[in-house]
């Protein structure tokens, strides 16, 4: 008999329950012939649900405080989501991808759609993984990705806080793999939708328990370790949706004896305004030099 407290059982159901609801709403929209409407309805539902849950049961109360970054977060998100729309949604709608799919594809189109989507997620995740890892471990790419890691709190609203170059890198590492494999548009649509849903869930500031799900999925608990200020801890859990390649390449990280740090962020300097953040990667060394000189100037004054 399961003797776990009811609150603990509820904690276990939040992440899979919300994701399952998003999948159900999206699937219903597809069945009704309104593919985009179903996804949009599910995405809006998830935003509203996380907004309420973050207020009612926050993982970190301090992360509820305004950090002055809502406008930059919104503008980064609007631009990054537009790029994804153009490359994925419009690309399929206008047939841009058809010429990129190889003739005589070995894609298992006879499989049930859920199995095709699962296969596509593993394939796409290989590209997501290396795109993400490169942005951390190859110095020229870090300034673009640092915009995302410069946040001092995680919540659903800054899920899409990515530089344009960072977003394009992620899509261009993963999408060609699916096209080369011959994945049909329906599968691409589902991978895009699931990535959007998991992204919101990954960054949310909601108290929940994900348990064994941490072994396979990029849950909030696992992603909070990824945002640790210590690079030894932060350069882990690179998966976008799944952590399968983190297991393969040795970057899966979940210490059994402690929780992720409550203080997140980076040591590098980052402008507070949106234009400054967009331009930061192109004047990265100057920004860091100015930040190092600032304490000395204040002391002189």
Shape: globular
Strand composition percent: under 5%
Q: Give the overall average pLDDT.
A: 90
- The helix tally amounts to 12
- What's the β-strand tally? 0
Query: Which structural class matches the secondary elements?
Result: mainly alpha
SSE layout:
Layout: H1 6-31, H2 35-56, H3 70-93, H4 113-137, H5 142-149, H6 164-181, H7 185-203, H8 220-226, H9 231-234, H10 244-249, H11 274-279, H12 284-300
Q: How would you sum up this structure in a few lines?
A:
This protein is 60% helix and 0% strand.
Structure characterization notes:
With 301 residues, the chain is mostly helical. Helices cover 60% and strands 0% of the residues. The longest helix has 26 residues, at 6-31. Mean pLDDT is 90; it is low at 1-6.
Features:
301 residues; mainly alpha; 60% helix; 0% strand
